[in-house]
Write a structure and sequence with these properties.
This protein is α+β, with helices and mostly antiparallel strands. The protein has helices at residues 15-27, 66-76, 99-106, 128-131; strands at 38-44, 49-53, 82-89, 113-117, 123-127. The protein has a single domain (13-132), classed as Cytidine Deaminase, domain 2 (3-Layer(aba) Sandwich), CATH 3.40.140. The structure holds tetrahydrodeoxyuridine. Tetrahydrodeoxyuridine (THU) binds at residues 31, 34, 36, 38, 54, 56, 63, 65-67, 97-98, 101.
């Protein structure tokens, strides 16, 4: 059965420029423990693009992923509404965002377009809603049981 065509993204992004921004951040990845380099480019509704890379730590558990690094940077610059995130990595195949990153992105974007591009050039596109259905989200804490 043919796949249902995906509707166009709400904001027309220049994916090539976003991939380049993610790749540039990926170059700066600090990952001496895993050797995996990840870059992310997060697109704000006002058109600004915030990039991030993974930053590992000798304690391992304190490693920060590229997507969360990009988000923290964006929020610090006053951006809170986002349309897309492009993820690149040193893996041949597209790297999908980890569960923690999905949850943290969900705080600010219910329907983010998520594009991941591998070193081999293949890409995977999805939405945050598809990647994290029935999420625990800000609304769950509004007017809730406390
Ligand atoms: N990593 C990310 O940056 N984003 C993800 O969504 C998954 C994993 C990083 C963390 C760590 O530095 C390396 O990839 C291996 O897990």
């Amino acid at each position: 059965m043919a796949a249902t065509p995906r509707p166009p993204a709400s904001v027309p992004e220049d994916d090539e420029a976003l991939i380049a921004a993610a790749r540039a951040a990926q170059e700066n990845a600090y990952s001496p423990y895993s050797g995996v380099r990840v870059g992310a480019a997060l697109v704000a509704d006002d058109g600004r693009v915030f990039s991030g890379c993974n930053v590992e730590n000798a304690s391992l558990g304190l490693t920060q992923c590229a997507e969360r690094a990009a988000l923290s940077r964006a929020v610090a610059e006053g951006a809170r509404d986002f349309s897309a995130v492009v993820i690149t990595s040193s893996f041949e195949e597209p790297l999908m965002p980890c569960g923690a990153c999905r949850q943290v992105l969900r705080e600010f974007a219910e329907d983010l377009r998520v594009v991941s591009v591998g070193m081999g050039g293949a890409s995977k596109e999805s939405t945050l809603g598809e990647l994290l259905p029935t999420a625990f989200a800000p609304d769950d804490l509004r007017g809730g049981a406390r």
